[in-house]
Amino acid sequence: MPNIAVLPGDCIGPEIMNAALEIFKAAQQVTNTNYTIQSYPFGGAAIDAVGEPLPASTLAGAKAADAVLLAAIGGPKWNDAKERPEAGLLKIRKSLNLFANIRPTKITPGMVQYSPLKPDIAKNTDFVIVRELTSGIYFGQPRRLGTADAVDTSHYTEAEIKRILEVAFTMAQSRQKHVTVLDKANVLATSKLWRQVAATVAPNYPDVTMDFEYVDAAAMKIVSNPTQFDVIATSNLFGDILSDEAAAITGSIGTIPSESRGIAGPNLYEPIHGSAPDIAGKGIANPIAMINSVVMMLTNTFHDTQTAGVIQNALNQTIEAGTLTPDFGGNATTTSMTTAIIKAI
Amino acid sequence: MPNIAVLPGDCIGPEIMNAALEIFKAAQQVTNTNYTIQSYPFGGAAIDAVGEPLPASTLAGAKAADAVLLAAIGGPKWNDAKERPEAGLLKIRKSLNLFANIRPTKITPGMVQYSPLKPDIAKNTDFVIVRELTSGIYFGQPRRLGTADAVDTSHYTEAEIKRILEVAFTMAQSRQKHVTVLDKANVLATSKLWRQVAATVAPNYPDVTMDFEYVDAAAMKIVSNPTQFDVIATSNLFGDILSDEAAAITGSIGTIPSESRGIAGPNLYEPIHGSAPDIAGKGIANPIAMINSVVMMLTNTFHDTQTAGVIQNALNQTIEAGTLTPDFGGNATTTSMTTAIIKAI
Ligand SMILES: CC(C)[C@H](C(=O)O)[C@@H](O)C(=O)O
Ligand SMILES: CC(C)[C@H](C(=O)O)[C@@H](O)C(=O)O
Fold first, then answer.
1. What is the rounded CA–CA span in Å between residue B211 and residue B219?
2. For residue range B109-139, what is the model confidence (pLDDT) as tens digits?
3. Closest listed ligand to the CA of A272
4. Residue that finishes a domain, picked among A261, A283, A318
5. Do A162 and A233 belong to one domain?
């Protein structure tokens, strides 16, 4: 039986996870499928429970699972914790070897109205950012914090760059067949290495074209001309910043799921949004991105397009009927939206 | 007599510099002022002339000047140069101690139409990014490029952070009295140091409020809610990326000047846009940002608001009359626009 490790995390995390799991359960009844779900403490919740953000039992459970479903972690409550919730996130990425973070940015005709961009610029936007997730300045050593100075190190190996570029090129083959590598090669040595490696990887994908773009120029173009991109491949830090910028142009960060892909072990699926401490406990958290994360997991890991389709259709119907949480201008609660989706199922 | 070192640089650089200097000369006649201008090779032009992007004579001239006016450098021609044009830019920043790069982002009512953002989001945007310019990952050691791996180092000292924050807080005092420090303190040691130092600097400016924002969250907000910012203070790399994103939301990167402020020596003024190799030599380069750089220099270094005003008014008149280069939807050339501005003077 397929086995899913669930990490509800903090603040609105458990609220949206519960919603998505109830919907998932209802869909399983329709398609006669059966997924085993096991929940583990993670992030701030785990700090509160056992004093560390990624307990060994949580990691073991995640490792043994076929897929990991994460809601969101963090919050001001743990600002002064010895180890913060975010440390757990970095550790699970590293331990599960989740080296490729994949974030789609798509503005469908129906979503153009939510974009902060003018319709003519927003429409037809459809690109994917493939972000390196287990190296770069997030993990490089030495890292040192003193009172007089501090140091961070960005380190990349050829092998790390090669495998993430291969994910990007493979993805481009089933899309518009173009990869843009984002870097700062006019300043950084690691960026120059990315260009060197890209020059050796590209010839293996003769059907895919490639270009290079400076990260600062790309930060402009995501706003001024986002339709020009197909697949963007970039480092951990640049991917962090630009994928959030990319999410913002959809006007719908409450809807976007992401996949973090490992090597042999499970993939991890999560909304791109955070734990929203400001609205935690109010019952108004938007569950759409969490639901879309379940759909993405069913499609990409379990190839269960049937159950995914049932959820997707019910979600679309509910959205079209205008049952939306306040962040989308509606007055539904997390619970009433969940009930409406289950009804549509 | 006030003394200005002029660095025309590469591609469209000399074209827009010539335009701006002709206009500047015409304005001096009106206000009866007299600035000495000395031009030096820099960037690719200097590589071609003497084999290095920042010749000693250029640096000496810049050091001796009261202000430095730079157009733009770089181009594909020098991609394989031993030392690239950009290396000259980093060197002159470091040698002149230009630690504070100041970039205004303002969307006036008349400019809302050019913004890629919907008018309701764009209107009233008015913030300044204060970017640290002589440290961080741009200059940290070790920096190493091999074939198997590569390393970059980000290093910040308390003193470097303190002085840039002081610029930001002082600037906020004559604006909306709010500073936002952008960092990635949930991951980076250097960012944690920025927060530590900010906590010691802020109390010296009791009239200014401060908050912290993660750089990825800020990359979202610049697109979704740009009016919330007043003064943004950030590191060299984050400032590079976010100030370009900020420029993009104006829809008018062809208009924005910037100031790089030193300690005792001259400030440097330059357009935020690049050298635009694709349109070099075509005579259609937009000179507005270069002209605005002259205005910014006259105002901030020479406190010559009279000459600055003469140029500004003539420029505004010309823009309002619709005399604009193709990037702004007009059909003026650099020369015809320059002639129109001089006529308006
Ligand atoms: C919470 C933080 C450490 C994390 C990151 O920077 O990777 C987040 O911003 C993300 O993008 O998943
Ligand atoms: C040309 C490049 C080295 C430079 C930088 O990254 O600082 C440019 O992007 C800038 O912002 O002035």
1. 16
2. 888 999 999 999 999 999 999 999 999 999 9
3. 1
4. A261
5. yes
